[in-house]
Amino acid sequence: MSQFWSPLVHSLTPYVPGEQPKINNLIKLNTNENPYPPSPKVLAEIKAQTGELLKRYPDPNSDVLKQTIAQYHQLNSNQVFVGNGSDEVLAHAFQALLKQDKPLLFPDITYSFYPVYCGLYQMEYQTIPLTENFEIDINDYHKESGGIIFPNPNAPTGRLLALKNIEDLLKKHANKVVLVDEAYIDFGGESAATLINQYPNLLVVQTLSKSRSLAGIRVGFALGHPDLIEALERVKNSFNSYPLDRLAIYGAKAAFEDEAYFQETCQKIIQTRHRLTNTLQALGFNIIPSAANFIFVSHPNYPAEQLAQALRKQSIIVRYFNKPRINQYLRITIGTDAENRQFSQALQSIIQTTP
Fold first, then answer.
1. Cβ contacts of residue 32 below 8 Å, gap of 6+?
2. pLDDT, tens digit, for every residue of 150-160?
3. pTM (two decimals)
4. Is 151 a domain residue?
C-alpha cells in the first residue's frame, strides 16, 4: 500500500470483474457476454460515424439516444438517463439517490459491485438473505432503510421476481427509491419499466451489453421519474460531461432500431438455455430456474471448483464464486449451440473420469 494513498483508498475492496483470458480456441462462458454479434445495422452505423466528426466532442446529453430509448419504452426523454455502461449508471444512482441516513438493502447473494459502491461512497448497508431456494422474499425488505436495490433476474442465480411482487414493494416503500437492476431482463422477464409512470420512487437500470451484444462499447441507461433522472444528471455533470462517445451513441441507437434482430438473438439464447438445462439435468446437476443468459448449477457429487479447473484444462472457462452459500455452484453463460455441445461433452468426460 502506498504512503500517498488517501484514507478512503486504503479502505476499499475493489470489484473483481470476470476474467478475460488470452487462450487459443477458448470457449468463454464466464462473463455473460452474448455469443452472437451485434446487429449488422449497428456495425454499419458505427462505421458511418468514424469520419471527420470524431474531431468534435460528442453530444454531452446524448439526446438522439435518449429519444430513441424513450420512444422504445413509451416514455419521455426526461425519464431517461444514459451512461458509460450500467455500472456507471448504478454508481451515479448510489451517490445521487441511495446514499441516505439509513442503510441500503440488497440481497446477500447478488451483484458483487453493490457492496463495493457502498465502500466507495461510505454508505451503510444491510444484506437480506435469499431463501433456501435462492429467491428474493419481498417481506424480508419491509424494514427501515434508505433504499432498496436488487437485480431482476438476480445475479448470479438467474431467478426472476414477478412484476406483481415488485409493485407490492414499491407500494409499501413509497418514501424511498427502489432500484431494479435489469441487466438480464430480456431473456425471460417482464421489465418494471411499465410501472414507471405509476411509481415515482422506481428507477430501472438496463444495459446494452447482454441482450444487444454491445459489451464492447459500454452503454447503460436508467428509466424513472424526471426528478430521479435529474439527480443522476447532476452527479454525472459533476463527474464527466461526456460519458458516451459518438460511436456508442449512434451504435446504441441503431441497436434499438433493429427489433427483429434483437428478438431473434434473444430467442436463440432462451432456446439454447432450455436445451442446456435439460442436458445438465440428465448429467445429475441441480439447476436454479433461470430467466437470464446464464444458468447457476451444482452437482451433488463433484465440487464446483474442481469442475471449473478441469474445464479450464480443456480451454473452457465458467464463473466460480468462492463465497459462502454458493461455493458449490458454477455460473455458466449460454453460448452458441456448438459451444454448449462442446461444453456438455467436456463436462460429461470429466464426470466419467473423476472418482
1. 18, 155, 184, 210, 292, 293, 294, 331, 333
2. 999 999 999 99
3. 0.96
4. yes
